[in-house]
């Protein structure tokens, strides 16, 4: 049957005479086929067709599933004695009925009407399917746009762009080029591309596994990508090996020759940003019948059958996707620039902190390296209390920022307190030194005066007999003074104060030297209080001031409008001096209240403070000794045992010891 003829089935011999009268009139539109009652149950009615039948055949049709009759238009011819059942009016496949033999003219009219209705329905089905396909394509584009807009990593973004472009155009291969500014090349107002180059950034290929390297090329009409960049218009090439001679470019066949690939159809479109500027190129290669299947590169016949030409719809879809891709790439670049700017601000802040206390230079960076390293190790554990803890890339960045800025609040601490290396400030120690020097001069003066007094009061020989005793007493007092001063120097160091030294300091404080009718105490009560600091170099007020840096840090970081991914930076930094047993500061949190990120930072912070070689008030401890001290703090309930175990077992500490 010719494809354009519409099939009409009729029951023979009942309708033979009717068909013979109208077949000559309708033969150019319809193809008539006679069937018998016995054929009705098995007759294929899946495609559009007309059936003229009587009541027996109609009853057989009613027994068939409705889905088998969806494309049927039935004309029921009843005998005069047969009644039309009103219930039949609800049957979608019953198009018309008549009582008695139908007139040929009436039958011809009815068939033509059903034919027109069938064509209309077919067109509606076609348009509906096309609309559904367009809706699906737009939905795909929308989903792709959403996916691209959330990606911040440029390499991952470019790979997503290519994958989506290849999928939506059924391409076997794709490449992405970005326009870049070339350093040292001056701009030309008349040529926006004068100082620009086209960089091959990314590629994908479903039929070849190959590595690729970036390369840069000039933007000119000698290449297809350069031509599209300059023209700003899409270019659809049915076959790259049969290019129009009017094109100024040639197809570079070296890729096919070197890899065994076969390039044929190509679609190249510009990526324009919202300003209309071309920022890159998308190039699709080899549209396929079956996108999911790789090409058989060994069979020319298969390649000829599988590779199609890109259509206008492909061009439209790829151009739409390219626009979304351009926005996404510019957003990713802007995000990277903002992140670089912000990280520059962070590192400048750290430098500002450490410039006030050069003895801790590099501390914040090392703490960040250790804490992020510990988090990465924790992310891989598959047993224990932290087996379900996982950190995303952004959460690791959050940990890094909190670690870098954990001591920023020290900018609110007085510099002399911040860098205080000994119990006495330099000017306070200098005052004691001058006082002792004055006392030395006083002792010497007293010694000389007494000798002069003897010489004046008695004969010289007799006076000289007293000189040895005077000298002995003088040197004894001078030595005691020196011993006291050395004790002061010794106790001034930030070591643990022994009980014996504390008692001697109190005795020294009660010693007074009188000179010129004025009393000079060796130590003032204030100086005694300073030297009596039991551990370290800070008194209680100074220690509280130093500890206040944590609150200053939190208050400062809370003023920064962090993104959702980084919102926990202030809280993480806020808890880096808290201890599991509630004896930390400033809030005395218990274990459950301390974020795991802060627990990790605490271990890193203490370890670096113990092993750092740049502290003037203490020597750097060996790694083993520092780990032992951390272990003691674990036993005392201050540090997390599991995190300490991971820190030690995974040798996280080696991250800051490059020679290890």
UniProtKB/TrEMBL annotation:
Keyword Nucleus: no
Keyword Transferase carried by entry: no
Record GO terms (molecular function): hydrolase activity
PANTHER family reported for this sequence: CYCLIC DI-GMP PHOSPHODIESTERASE PA4108 (PTHR43155:SF2), CYCLIC DI-GMP PHOSPHODIESTERASE PA4108-RELATED (PTHR43155)
Keywords recorded for this protein, A-Z: Hydrolase
SMART domains recorded: GAF, HDc
Pfam family, one: HD
Domain HD-GYP: 338-453, 449-660
InterPro entries, sorted: GAF, GAF-like_dom_sf, HD/PDEase_dom, HD_domain, HD_GYP_dom
Source organism (scientific name): bacterium (Candidatus Blackallbacteria) CG17_big_fil_post_rev_8_21_14_2_50_48_46
SUPFAM superfamilies associated with the record: GAF domain-like (SSF55781), HD-domain/PDEase-like (SSF109604)
Protein name listed in UniProt: HD family phosphohydrolase
Highest rank taxon of the organism: Bacteria
CDD domains per record: HDc (cd00077)
